[in-house]
Amino acid sequence: MSSNQTERKFEGWAAMDENAVKGGMKWTEYEPKEFAEDDVELEIQYCGICGSDLHTMSNGWGTTKGMYPQVVGHEIVGKVVRVGKDVKHLKEGDVAGVGAQCDSCLECVNCKNGEENYCSKGLTGTYGGKFSRTSAGSKSYGGYANYWRGPAHFTVLIPEGVDPAEAAPMMCGGTTVFTPLKQYGAGTTAKDVGIVGIGGLGHFAVLFAAAMGANVTAISHSHKKDEDAKKLGAKQVIVTGDDTKAAFKGHERSLDLIIVSSNAPDMPFDAYLSLLRPHGHLVIVGVAEEGSLPNVHPFNLIMSNVHISGSAIGSVKGMEECLKFAGDNNIKAWVKRYPMKEANEAVKSMNEGEARYRYVLVNEEHGGKLNA
Ligand SMILES: NC(=O)c1ccc[n+]([C@@H]2O[C@H](COP(=O)([O-])OP(=O)(O)OC[C@H]3O[C@@H](n4cnc5c(N)ncnc54)[C@H](OP(=O)(O)O)[C@@H]3O)[C@@H](O)[C@H]2O)c1
Ligand SMILES: [Zn+2]
Ligand SMILES: [Zn+2]
């Protein structure tokens, strides 16, 4: 062990190959980055299971080949147990969270503008990345684990008034939809908002958009979530089923903003665009495993003056704003808690589409609570 390492033994659920997503992760010890004076160390209490964790473990995006073992998880909340000399905003004993990004250059124009998620030099993912600013070349490891170590800049204090177990999935899933909802004026300039895909991200999007004052339409591929979507705050639910065109009949040009959080491989973008009013925005956050978008006919953009864009996670400020918004508006995330030791069961169930709507892994020995 090098001198700047602690006695803590870093262990987590490692994906050794593509079968991990079916419940084949192995509990493994690993070497974290070298501790730097702008780092913190967390005793992990909670870690949400994000759809991206599954795509990574399964190599569904083709980005994981040669990158196993992977300890995924980027919706982390835990107790601060070690603080570098240069860290100003956290102290030992605080409860803090980290999302999908754990480092960037901190110097480029985007980093300086508080958009570290669009760093010109690229971001370091909380797992599956490589550090370059400090401990250059070390691999980043995520939160299905006992400890997390990394740059404090990317950690935020969990405010009083937000249950830390519910704050965990807000670190990625919540912030990822909160950011474009805010950017495109949900509830203000965008009164009518559609959310495609009612999964972890989608359920946050419905909760947040409704709390922002928008009329929310949930767009789901089956009837299974009709009732839940209404309870989350949707005014109406459109079920696309096998015939999206038929499902959208009568709803053309009725929405100002659509957030697509589904990761279905065959999404009918032309049909989604038909729902937008002129000047409307369709923002993609879900990433299908096949990766590319279907052809969109130019007339469907030209004749309606609609916009297609994407949005990546959120900035540090975005995470803080999301947590504050959740606290101020008493947003209750629908989470199911699993003991960390049952991570394989949770991942398998999520992979089978059973989550309603976010699973959160709990380390009870670090103060995480299995019951709300
Ligand atoms: N842009 C970013 O920065 C960012 C950040 C986090 C996650 N993501 C991505 O966002 C996507 C959603 O993540 P999540 O955590 O919300 O996942 P999730 O909980 O599994 O939700 C995905 C939803 O997609 C819909 N879906 C429709 N057809 C599907 C199909 N054939 N297979 C699977 N799902 C289908 C389902 O909703 P219905 O049943 O309502 O149709 C499902 O609940 C993932 O691709 C993830 O990687 C992106
Ligand atoms: Zn995520
Ligand atoms: Zn940068």
TrEMBL record:
SUPFAM superfamilies per the UniProt record, alphabetical: GroES-like (SSF50129), NAD(P)-binding Rossmann-fold domains (SSF51735)
SMART domains, per database record: PKS_ER
Keyword list, A-Z: Metal-binding, Oxidoreductase, Zinc
Cofactor field: Zn(2+)
InterPro entries in alphabetical order: ADH-like_C (IPR013149), ADH-like_N (IPR013154), ADH_Zn_CS (IPR002328), CAD-like (IPR047109), ER (IPR020843), GroES-like_sf (IPR011032), NAD(P)-bd_dom_sf (IPR036291)
GO MF annotations, alphabetized: oxidoreductase activity, acting on the CH-OH group of donors, NAD or NADP as acceptor; zinc ion binding
Domain Enoyl reductase (ER): 23-361
CDD domains assigned: CAD1 (cd05283)
Family as reported in the entry's similarity comment: Belongs to the zinc-containing alcohol dehydrogenase family.
Protein name, entry field: Chaperonin 10-like protein
Species name: Dioszegia hungarica
